[in-house]
Amino acid sequence: MSATIALQHGALERYETPSTREPQWIKLLLIGIALSFFTVFLLFPLVAVFVEAFRKGWGTYLAALSSHDALAAIRLTLLTAAIAVPLNLFFGVSAAWAIAKFEFPGKRLLITLIDLPFSVSPVISGLIYVLLFGAQGWFGEWFAAHDIKILFAVPGIVLATIFVTFPFVARELIPLMEAQGSEEEEAAVVLGASGWQVFWHTTLPNIKWGLLYGVILCNARAMGEFGAVSVVSGHIRGMTNTMPLHVEILYNEYNYAAAFAVASLLALLAIVTLGLKTLVERQSHKQKTESLALENAS
Amino acid sequence: MKLKTVVSSLLAASVLAGNVLAADISLLNVSYDPTRELYQDFNAAFAKYWKAKTGDNVTINQSHGGSGKQARGIIDGLEADVATLALAYDIDALADKALIPQDWQKRLPNNASPYTSTIVFLVRKGNPKGIKDWNDLVKPDVAIITPNPKTSGGARWNYLAAWAYALEQPGGNETKAKEFIGQIFKNVKVLDSGARGATTTFVERGIGDVLLAWENEAYLSLKELGDKFEIVTPSLSILAEPPITVVDKTVDKHGTRKVAQAYLEYLYSAEGQEIAARNFYRPQDAKIAAKYAKQFAKTRLVTIDKSFGGWRNAQKVHFSDGGVFDQIYVPSGKR
Fold first, then answer.
1. What is the ipTM of this complex?
2. A106, A226, B93, B191 — which has fewest CB within 10 A?
3. Radius of gyration of chain B (CA)
């Protein structure tokens, strides 16, 4: 349908380049396939989450979210993200800065290692902390002797979350900063700016949208992580269950309305994330066009 | 700078975790999968009893999962004050790591098992495949759901009940039993890690014709999900004794031995036994068992000690790496 409208408006020359001169039915078929895939695999499950959550009415929904265990899970999830995201923001900017602006031995290796959490299964991400901090693990005895609890407690959950969300900010910034090069920073230094001033007034404005984009993704994953956190959590209800773990427990207790109520919060988070992401993408695109226009003008 | 941030936020995190924990007394009960509803009821009853007796407020926190996985968690540092697992071997594993003494099973009555259960079949309404006994499970068109014996206590009881049945058949011997078990596991469609996951697969996702389940789990499914299912009790099953223990290393560290001990002993009291029976566990107390006798089908029950020479032996022969289970089970993708 949208194709016909485009034709009516005489957009023929613009859209029908030789590479897209296909018969109408192929276009419709492709659009149809894409839309039905989208509906079946993305839209239906999303709708189902909310339908199930509200099946027994608002009362049950609110009761499920305000139960002691659910509130504890929400608090723990927020706390975990509040620690993991700023740390990874700091790390991501440092790493991207180092990689994009300097040459040093082992640079390629560092880039590869930053990607490690993406390529490794979350179960392994959890198990490494069991191996390190478990009672039978490398440092387990020392921590036990000093009465510091890491595994099956909040610090373990935070550590596992940091590990799996490690690459998001750095991965987003490295290509961006590499593409921008270091001419502007060099100019700033020549003009007498201090290191901090260079970062604050030159680098940060250039990378802010990419940075925000990375933080949004990092946060979404930090709140949604299941596998790694499941391994190190110990599943003590009301204490070491994050929201995704709480959803599983409720589901396994035949408590479907409550399970989907908590799941709907996570789904809402995903929708908000997508909204923010679109906004940020638009802003960064605008910034790019503006700076291009500026270059052309000069 | 970075290291400092890490350390200080970790400290902040542990302080916050400490605040969540703060209560007059708190105990952690690390249990197996199907006991969620049982301990929800029992913990409330015990807190009331303890408050009346001592004036202290006691909060009992729960962690549930496959029995073997939970034992592993305690060994790795999950600070359980009491362990209430599916079978003695998983608690023996704690004794082997010196978390509890070797004679733990003699510290409480009835082999430290305040309630027992057995293994039954849950089938779909009307029993469309006509499943009556263990030998019906090896028919080629029967799809079975059971959890994984490597991680689940219930699944190990399932397996041993089937083995005991095969031995009891005319001309039954070890070789035939092994063949029989092999045929059963050939029909297994999904191998979940815990009993509750297997139940969900069967009742919620609608996979399989028969679920090999704890009796209490099967009755709970009927109660929760109405009349879509039926319970079939086989001609012979196994007396499952889920044992309990105080975890000495933890209670000595937390100073909670007295209340932990009282908690376990209360499971043997009249009220504890009633709660167990109401949650479809078979009570040990003769009077309460008589009261609830109608609830449980009568069938022949073999014991782990008489038929398998105790859990340590059964574990070694059947479930250790390279044991009988490893020899007979080939995941369906590799067949």
1. 0.75
2. A106
3. 21
CA–CA–CA angle B43, B45, B50 (5° rounding)? 90
* Whether B23 contacts A68, CB under 8 Å: no
Q: Are residues B74 and B190 in the same domain?
A: no
B292 within domain boundaries: no
In a mutational test of the B interface, the residue from A154, A231, A241 whose CB has the highest number of chain B CBs within 10 Å is: A154
Strand partners, B210: B123, B144
Task: Determine, for residues A236 and B63 on separate chains, whether the beta-carbon distance falls below 8 Å.
Answer: yes
Q: How far is residue A244's CA from residue A88's CA, in Å, rounded to a whole number?
A: 21
Report the chain A residue with the minimal C-alpha distance to residue B3: A87
Mutate to test the interface with A, among B36, B59, B79 (most CBs of A within 10 A): B79
Residue pair B155/B147 in contact by the 8 Å Cβ criterion: yes
Of B154, B143, B173, nearest to B238 by C-alpha is B154
Region A3-31: mean pLDDT is: 64
Segments forming the whole domain that contains residue B43: 24-113+242-268
Strands B144-147 and B210-214: parallel
Scanning B218-257 for CB atoms below 8 A from A yields 224-225
Q: Which residue has the higher pLDDT, A76 or A13?
A: A76
What does the DSSP 8-state code read for residue A202? I
Residue B315 lies in a domain: yes
Query: Token digits for A32?
Result: 């149809």
Put residue A141 in one of left, alpha, beta given phi > 0 → left and psi -120 to 50 → alpha: alpha
Whether pLDDT at B128 is above 90: yes
Higher per-residue pLDDT: A95 or A21: A95
B193 part of a folded domain: yes
Three-state secondary-structure class, residue B25: strand
Do B195 and B308 sit in the same domain of this protein?
yes
pLDDT in tens, B184-228: 999 998 888 888 889 989 988 889 999 999 999 999 888 887 788
B130: domain CATH number? 3.40.190.10
Task: List the single residue in A90, A152, A252 with the smallest CB-CB distance to B73.
Answer: A152
Count of domains observed in chain B: 2
Which tens digits make up the pLDDT trace of A158-198? 999 999 999 999 999 999 998 888 888 889 989 988 888 98
Q: Is the pLDDT of residue B231 over 50?
A: yes
Per-residue burial over A124-134, b if 16 or more Cβ lie within 10 Å, else e, is ebbbbbbebbb
Q: Chain B partners of A133 at a C-beta cutoff of 8 Å?
A: 77
Whether B200 has its CB under 8 Å from any CB of chain A: the answer is yes
Co-location of B90 and B232 in the same domain: no
**Tokens for A147?**
């009465």
Tens digits of per-residue pLDDT, A102-154? 888 988 899 999 999 989 998 999 999 999 998 888 998 888 888 888 999 99
Q: Are residues B52 and B167 in the same domain?
A: no
